[in-house]
Amino acid sequence: MISSDVIRGYIDTMILYLLLKEPSYGYEISKRIRELTDEKYIIKETTLYSAFKRMEINGHIESFSGSETYGKPRTYYKITEAGKMYYKEKCKEWEITKEVIEKFILREWI
Amino acid sequence: MNTIRNYLDNMFLGLPDTEEVIRAKKELLAMMEDKYNELKDSGKAENEAIGIVISEFGNLDELAETLGIKHALENKSDILQVTYEEAKNYIEDKVKTAPKTALGVLLLIMSPVLLLLLLGLKEFTNVNAKEELFIAAGLAVLIAMIAIAVLFFIRFSSKLEKYDYLEETVFELDYKTEQMIRGIMAQDEHSYKSAVSISVAGYILSALPVIITPLIFDIDGLSVISVAVTLTIVAISTYNLISKSAVNAACTVLLQQGEYSVKSKSNKTLQTVTKVYWLVITAIYLAYSFITFNWAISWIIWPVAGVIFAAIQVIAEQRS
Question: What is the ipTM metric for this complex?
């Protein structure tokens, strides 16, 4: 299990990555996160929803309603230009973060 | 699926029904539903599917800041929540009892009227009827009317007793309930305002008989009778005001405005002073009237006491 403290700063990055290709909705995003991480990280519904709200306020994503195969209206999210910029920043930030932390990891202890 | 819906309802229990909260609940439910359906499709048993969905839901604290319900979550158990039903019942009961309360007040104000009329007429009659007889008859009616009024008050105050906490303690309403009350208050505003105007006009006119009569006629009996006329106008104006302001009064209590504001409620001294004040005024009125039998003048205590009370309220508000 991963500590949620560590991952918190990068939840937005994960969601933005998934939205780069095409707009998506709540459950599909949580499902794809689970699949992509081989079930090592399962996002809680409340975590995902608060991320949506935060990113909407920051202007990184936009919501719109669309309908699914079941026919009921669903809230979809799509990435904005500002969101793409932010995603790029976060990717760069991660590269540095990774490098920094790596300096303190004893390889032979893993 | 019902278990999941109940779980979510429970998590959201007591939270304000703001647009944000309603939207969050809807979307969280949609996500949980999707997850549940897919787990079922993949061959999971009902209980297992529900267990996974609920264990992966998370914690509402995480949403507190985004939804602006941080305050509500923290104070959830501290402040009393008044529900939609309670608020609706309160308004309905207030409206139902208002005409009867108004009638009780009318009886109280009118109670010395017959006594005054008899005392006034006594001056004109040549009949050798004894003064004592006039007074006895008038007093009997006065006491009977007060008794009936008190019976009315006891009956209706016990009916409304269960709502006392609304007037005395600080509480919170959810968004939906508050909107409902504001709507009712706005709808009633026109009829409330015209009732107030009519009654205020009545109160002003009521002063005319006592002022004008002694100026025109120099007859003691007529002056006494003019007080009876004044009291009757005051009584009718008050009846009109109480019976037509029930909706507005109930909404004022529920929205915690004016003397029911959070500030006034926390001022316990003012509450006590209010209760004691009116009891003392009533005692003075009854004692003075019965001892001196000056019913023609003693009623003045009411308008004077009312104005003094308003002054006390203003001073108390500035101090706190």
Answer: 0.84
Question: Is-above-0.80 flag for pTM?
Answer: no
Residue-wise pLDDT for B242-261, tens only, equals: 999 999 999 999 988 877 87
| Cα dihedral B108, B112, B117, B123 in deg (nearest 10) | -170
CA distance A45 to chain B (A): 5
**Interface membership of B28 toward A (CB under 8 Å):** yes
B58 with A42: Cβ contact below 8 A:
no
Residues near B189 by beta carbon (within 8 Å), at least 6 away in sequence:
B248
Contact yes or no for B184/B250 (Cβ under 8 A): no
B28-78: pLDDT as tens digits: 999 999 999 999 999 988 888 988 898 888 887 777 777 766 655 555 556
Q: With beta carbons less than 8 A apart as the criterion, state whether A103 and A29 touch.
A: no
Measured CA to CA, the distance from residue B229 to residue B133 in angstroms comes to: 22
Q: Are B254 and B82 in contact (CB under 8 A)?
A: yes
